[in-house]
Predict the structure of N-acetyltransferase.
Amino acid sequence: MWKEIPEKVSQEQITFDVRELEPILSGPSLKLPPYEPEMAKLKDGSYLYIRPLEKDEVPKLLPFVKKLLDVDHDFYDIVGVRVYGELLGWYRNRLKDPYFMIGTINGKLAGFANARVMNNGIHISLHSMAFVRGLRVGAIMYYAKAKYAFEKLGAKEWWATYESYNGFKRWGLGMAQPSYPWPDVQHELGGAKVYYVTKEYWDLSIKDYLKQLVKTELEPASAEVAEANKELIIPDSPVV
Ligand SMILES: CC(C)(COP(=O)(O)OP(=O)(O)OC[C@H]1O[C@@H](n2cnc3c(N)ncnc32)[C@H](O)[C@@H]1OP(=O)(O)O)[C@@H](O)C(=O)NCCC(=O)NCCS
């Protein structure tokens, strides 16, 4: 926009260092207490090790996630492209207060989950993915991020939505999540319906989800399992 000035000025041009613009575009980040690594025994007896994804690991993960865009079944493509955007959004400071976790089995990438803090009450569930099928890795990843939100970050409400039938079956139905009236309330993922969990409902019921429906439990990661997962191995291509 352009408008004539109402006063004489000593400098007609004022320049800015882009570092002065960045705080306006990205805002301050919350200091979130870290997710402490956990593990869960899987159906085949192996352990899923869940830990925070480090920001400097994002470039290593992106080429793998990019390949999900070509997986045209079970909604891996649309979830993949959204996850790609969220990883870049975090890496380039264009996503407010996200948290990311990965699950590995003997170091090999097996699962992914992320969410973000919208405000001091509501956390937005973004995505969960399984890169190994049939072991309920995805179910555990989602539970782990919701547990972190409610029990460590003090979330009062968890807002989710579902692209896929598997996701809806796992958590929308599996956790018997109610929804807000739609389209009055919309999720940031495409304006879809918001399914939600309150802290009260988490404490009353959903805490038992893993035991009831996934037949496992999350426990603090043992030194042995942490050691077995020390090195992150990212497959060349997804086999899902
Ligand atoms: C949704 C998702 C995370 C669930 O992961 P999960 O809990 O590990 O479960 P899976 O998808 O592997 O399997 C779902 C069911 O189908 C069966 N199944 C599906 N594909 C299978 C395969 N290729 N091999 C073996 N079993 C398979 C599983 O045995 C399982 O049955 P169960 O309910 O009796 O355990 C996963 O399907 C996924 O990543 N989908 C693409 C991304 C997505 O949709 N994310 C969620 C958005 S809402």
